């Protein structure tokens, strides 16, 4: 007598409301990391997301898991913005400009505190996302340089640091003031970009900042 082979059961799909709650948590965490850094209390994130503490821990068992999700989500959207810019066939510097403004909207400043954070920066998901972003933006910048539109003495790190610093509120500014601060972000990002145009009107002090420089602190 043969025993029937059990048919593996499919894992249940997350409910729509559960997915919405997860996205609300990640969005709230991103905003609070921008304003206060990655050590902001998780109950404050829950309050901003409009969910209970238990919902946060059900989705993210610890702070590292939430930080990793925020970093990966920001890098994923930033990578998509870079891909869209690379797909453009017009002026190479204008494509780079559009990417920089899109990156500011994605709150890439949420990534900066992670450089010095104690969480696992070599997690496979983070490594893959980081390498993808670096490669795409390097191609964007190389294309603008080849067209003679981007000064030769700047690198990926210069753009990342500039946009990150300009898209985060001054120290001590809470999330409540973030929306008011955002009115100035694109004005200041454009000032940065104008300083990166070729031909360069001046010689920059120091050397171009690479991602390796940023990782080494």
From TrEMBL:
Lipid metabolism keyword on record: no
Domain HTH tetR-type: 19-78
Organism superkingdom: Bacteria
Keyword Transcription: yes
Coiled-coil ranges per UniProt: none
Keywords of the record: DNA-binding, Transcription, Transcription regulation
The entry's DNA-binding region: 41-60
Xref: InterPro entries: Homeodomain-like_sf (IPR009057), HTH-type_TetR-like_transc_reg (IPR050109), HTH_TetR (IPR001647), Tet_transcr_reg_TetR-rel_C_sf (IPR036271), TetR_SbtR-like_C (IPR049445)
Protein name (record): TetR/AcrR family transcriptional regulator
Organism: Streptomyces thermocarboxydovorans
